[in-house]
TrEMBL record:
It is an enzyme of class 2 (transferase). Belongs to the uridine kinase family. It comes from the Eukaryota. This is uridine/cytidine kinase. Keywords: ATP-binding, Kinase, Nucleotide-binding, Transferase. Pathway: Pyrimidine metabolism; UMP biosynthesis via salvage pathway; UMP from uridine: step 1/1; Pyrimidine metabolism; CTP biosynthesis via salvage pathway; CTP from cytidine: step 1/3. It holds the Pfam family PRK. The keyword Manganese does not apply. One of its GO terms (molecular function) is uridine kinase activity. It catalyses: cytidine + ATP = CMP + ADP + H(+); uridine + ATP = UMP + ADP + H(+). Residues 21-216 form the Phosphoribulokinase/uridine kinase domain. The lineage of its organism: Eukaryota, Metazoa, Ecdysozoa, Arthropoda, Hexapoda. GO terms for biological process: CTP salvage; UMP salvage.
Length: 258
């Protein structure tokens, strides 16, 4: 994890925070969305109005690029690789994240999994203290990865991920079993091994067993709670920070985030 977001400032000896970005990566159906949901639930954010939430979540799926007519035909046949980096509009994601860091309200598009296209609908993301960005390749693009203040990798075994993906794609996305299995073997599994798994090395925190790992989630929630509700005075070498406001190696916060 970066020592401190570049856009932190010190005012009257206390930290003034801009949004704290947390990237959540992992394979398809590894439990990324569920981990984010549990984090928000434990922080009491799920029941709040959108305008009042201090923690919000964005999916990388909202930044799939528009398909050409021929690509759309291939997608309908289950022959388009949605797990390849080229399937995403990383420039648009980067632009949105920079606006979020600037404290702006943004409109995030909604992706239609049935039609394999960006819908006409969007949802508004209001300025928040903490923003979770989850997706299979959120660590793949260096410019995007470098914006994250904390990086989590949800590590779930391949059998579990496939067992979750099959019913999800059939019931929620209108696919048939043969199409789901063919797509998994031809695209999803190879892309995970080539593009997603290597980004695990960038993670500050690896979460084995995904959302079932309540201990790991509780530690992350505790860390986010500190970000949201604590202001640390700048005291020479105290409270885990040196006289210039940098976190000291071996401080409790540093240990918690490993």
């Amino acid at each position: 994890m970066s020592e401190k977001p570049a856009d932190y400032s010190l005012t009257n000896g206390f930290e003034s925070k801009t949004p704290f970005l947390i990237g959540v990566a992992g394979g398809t159906a590894s439990g990324k969305s569920t981990v984010c949901q549990k984090i928000m639930e434990k922080l009491g954010q799920q029941q709040k109005e959108q305008t009042d939430r201090r923690v919000v979540c964005i999916s990388q799926d909202s930044f799939y690029r528009s398909l050409t007519p021929s690509e759309r035909v291939r997608a309908e046949r289950g022959q388009f690789n949605f797990d390849h980096p080229d399937a995403f509009d990383d420039k648009k994601l980067l632009a949105i994240l920079k606006e979020i860091l600037a404290g702006k309200k943004v409109e995030v598009p909604e992706y239609d999994y049935v039609t394999n296209s960006i819908s006409d609908r969007s949802h508004t993301i209001y300025p928040a203290d903490v923003v979770l960005i989850e997706g299979i390749l959120v660590f793949y693009f260096p410019e995007v990865r470098d914006l994250f203040h904390m990086k989590l990798f949800v590590d779930t075994d391949s059998d579990t991920r496939l067992a979750r993906r099959v019913p999800r794609d059939i019931m929620e996305r209108g696919r048939d079993l043969e199409q789901v299995l063919n797509q998994y073997m031809n695209f999803v599994k190879p892309a995970f091994e080539e593009f997603c798994l290597p980004t695990k090395k960038f993670a500050d925190v690896i979460i084995p067993r995904g959302a079932d790992n309540l201990v790991a989630i509780d530690l992350i929630v505790h860390h986010i709670w500190d970000i949201m509700y604590k202001k640390r005075p700048r005291v020479n070498g105290c409270n885990g920070f040196d006289e210039d406001g940098r976190r000291l190696s071996g401080s409790s916060e540093d240990t918690l985030s490993r």
